[in-house]
Amino acid sequence: MSGFVIAHSYEERIRQFGVRRFMTIRLIRFLPFFHLGGVLGIVMLALLRQSSILGAATYFLFLPAPPRPEFAFSLSPINGPGWSLLFEIYVNLAYAALLPRLSTRVILLVTTSTGAALAAASMAHIWIAGGSNWPTFWVGVLRVTFSFSTGVALFRFRDRLTFDTKQIWPVLIIFFAATFVPASSIWNGIVILFVSPALVVSALRAGQENWMARYGATSSYGIYVIHAPLLSIADEASRSLSLSSTVTQMLILAVILLAVPLLDRWFDRPLRRLLTKWWL
Questions:
Q1: What is the pLDDT of residues 36-66, one digit of tens each?
Q2: How far apart are CA 189 and CA 125, in angstroms?
């Protein structure tokens, strides 16, 4: 989805104002919630009586952490979801820097070659849902390159995708059912290579706006970047207080879902406006 959104919003503008301004805009978009997730991650590690000074320093600089065995060689030990956001930032940079050379033919070549590599890895029973640590770094590179280039390709072929809006429901049902299928290398490959792109394609013609769409657009990034450390904090607190971890995590999840729109309005947006005024 991000490849489609970035191409839709910025492909022509990058040609006008250049790579540096584009990346400044993107970093401003990422920064407030990303750094809030880092602060929560430091609190989480403190409760677990662990520390990662290098991991924290690199996280706040949008860099992968050095490989450390005590953190399973994680790219983002202080906030689990950070690894995928780092890949997102770097693929944005590669897209902007290489845009003059990224003809539609080249985009399709990148999509098919990385898709074929992922399919081969999946059929060889390699765990292609990885990418969060240094041993599986190559998997993350393949996944983000395939997914992002697929989104850009869908944007460039958007006028030829004449799907009826009713066709989104079967894909939504399949996508929802996919979460209940036991994880396996083959099934991961099917979801990454077919189910997720099909969901985006089906959504292209479903232009209806409602409260759920607005909530998702406003809150999905914030929920993703802060949920992991908050749930870990809740889990540690429930053990210390001898409470049910399931109940505690459900309560924290409800708080996250309710609080993120408020954080978006009173924290993320004002800070991004301030950063835009300073940097742009």
A1: 999 999 999 999 889 889 999 999 999 999 9
A2: 10
